[in-house]
Write the structure tokens for this entry.
Amino acid sequence: MDGTPVHDILVIGGGINGCGIARDAAGRGYSVFLAEMNDLGSGTSSGSTKLIHGGLRYLEFYEFRLVREALLEREVLWRNAPHIIWPIRFVLPHNEGLRPAWLLRLGLFLYDHLGGRKLLPKTRTIDMRIDAAGKPLKPLFSRAFEYSDCWVDDARLVVLNARDAADRGAVIATRTEVVDARREDGRWRATLRDVSSGARSEVRARLVVNAAGPWVDKVLASAMGRNEVHNVRLVKGSHIVVPKVSDDPRAYFFQNRDGRIIFAIPYEDDFTLIGTTDQDYDGEPRDAAISPAETDYLCAAASEYFARPVRREDIVWTYAAVRPLFDDGASKAQEATRDYVLRVEEGDGDAALVNIFGGKITTYRRLSEATLEKIEELLGRKGQAWTADARLPGGDFAVDGFDGQIAGLLRDYPFLNAGHARRLVRRYGTRARAILGQARSTDDLGVHFGADLYEAEVRYLMEQEWARTAEDVLWRRTKRGLRLAPNEVVTLEEFMEDLASRRRHEAAE
Ligand code: FAD
């Protein structure tokens, strides 16, 4: 026996699925090692449309199992993370010549009744000539349907699952790539590469979960030496962000002439998020970026509805990500199943492999439970599902307690402005107090990098949430990237590099 640590489970991939599985497993008492080659959530899980939704559109493809499970998850997830998840109403204008009103009504009836809706309000019909939702739209749309779904800060959902997994004993190794994994004496032996230094190390595990999202086939091929693997279909989706098109808190669901749909969603107080597209993709997932054709498509699709056209020059930010859809042979990218598939390969003795194909952000918790059921069969131990009633870090307040959290923060930290307090509660919930600590003035929060981002928050993100670079902070842990000037970003970068290097020196001494 060598001295290489042996864990029960090695999870490859720190997206929503890997982190959800790591958290569930750690909570059931397994020793877990999660390796993420970049930052947590830096793959597909930060590039979604950020909806916790049943997926109204999937009803057209008869995905009833998925839609029902996803609808049920909305209120479960909202209850467990009311800081980063909240309800949102969607306005779906009836567009003459596209889907008939009876079909929309039928779809929304099913949507309201398929999945255990208790807190979310039901669908209603609105007269767009008098309702404020009609104001930013062209006068062509006189009738619309308004229904409920939830919004999520996707990248933070990933990090909070990782945080909770670590609080329950899991090792979360970021910037750590699994470059090789082989079976040896009834165990897995995996070679890890520290992406920053190039240093190599090893871990052993009784079981491996391959949750590498769009890289799932690549892990099988390059780290496990498989030939001819083709389990997932990579489908790129892009979004544009523009200054807000309306002050209304509701989002829009627009039908396009090509049969697809797009959303226009209030985003980060001052913006509107518009997306998405569906395009088959065969490049490296990390390089996915919006194409000029997608930009034009999104601008044109939104301008079909908004009275004021959405133009290229309005765009302040774009992002693109790649869906790892289980390849069910569908002809069009938009028709490929959004459901998940788990495939187990048993090894000699122990050393099983569980591959995760597909999966939505919305269903990550159920996917994790289903994975744990398989793991428990394989490892011969029966545990209890526990995550349906377990708050994520900072989410330990009631779903109607958000304003109370802000009021409490403003009372205890009167130097905060209301916007700053609100932002902290939205990001960190009750853990905002761990950032603010004993502070009595903004001076006590340290260096101000701009847009209410202070040293105290950055230190918290580095110490508690595995942030290493300015990008981790600005585009995943917070969306301050939308507001910081380039020179402010440089100051933040320098600060983080300096702090990290001081830490390395202290650790070496
Ligand atoms: P990822 O988040 O990609 O995680 C996989 C991780 O594995 C990556 O971080 C990667 O760096 C890591 N990795 C890969 N190889 C290795 C290795 N060798 N070693 C270590 N680490 C490795 N879902 C919803 O529920 N609602 C939505 O509104 C929604 N909108 C979407 C919109 C778009 C445009 C897209 C693309 C997806 C959307 N989804 C949505 C789906 C959802 O985002 C994805 O299904 C989900 O994020 C996939 O998560 P994952 O953990 O499987 O993959």
The pocket of flavin-adenine dinucleotide is lined by residues 12-18, 35-38, 42-45, 47-51, 177-178, 211-215, 219, 223, 237, 276, 321-324, 359-362 (CB under 6 Å).
